[in-house]
Amino acid sequence: MPQALLKFCGMTREEDALRAAALGADFLGFIFHPESPRFVSPLQAAAISSPGVKRVGVFVRQGGGEILEIMEEARLDYAQFHGEQTIKDAEKIGRERVIRVLWPDRFEREDDFLRGSGEWKDRAALFLLDSGLKGGGSGAVIGASASPWFKKLGRPYLLAGGMNPGKLSRLWPSLDPMLKGFDLNSGVESAPGVKDRGLMAEAARLLGKPPEARRDAPPR
Questions:
Q1: pTM of the model
Q2: Any catalytic annotation for residue 122?
Q3: 183 a catalytic residue
Q4: Which CATH superfamily is domain 5-215 in?
């Protein structure tokens, strides 16, 4: 089975971060939006160990200058633009460090979706496709009518929106070569910000993470 990129988002506890690392996760997401139940401060995020895993900051209202400051303080590798950040913000951060969130449900037509994403095509390392019209964490799934559009993005993307092991088993492996992996948050939790160890392990298994990595994970 091909191996997908795996991102666990909404990290608030070191034990969950270490579990994710042992399971072979590629990214950990830290949310810097005070209205989120999974909010952490830069200082809190910096104190959470994540050996061998890329660290992603989720930003909603911050601009490029503030994002750079938080990235340095929290030891982040990527900035996930989850709000109304601009192209200038991306240029300040650097394309190779930007993950741009897109909301396909905002668009009624394929042409409008591709036009809306087009300006970011050469200004982000990855797209992340989320459900709803803005924000995130709803647990909802992207409308099925939009899925044929994704192959035309021209950039690799991760898929979010209520992802859990049951949904992963239906979506992976994928016939879309641009779909590189998945972002999981509420779908692997027992409470907001508290990850379920068994669900995390099942997601890693379904996405083809090496069994030897899973054996190193702490027992449930």
A1: 0.91
A2: no
A3: no
A4: Aldolase class I (3.20.20.70)
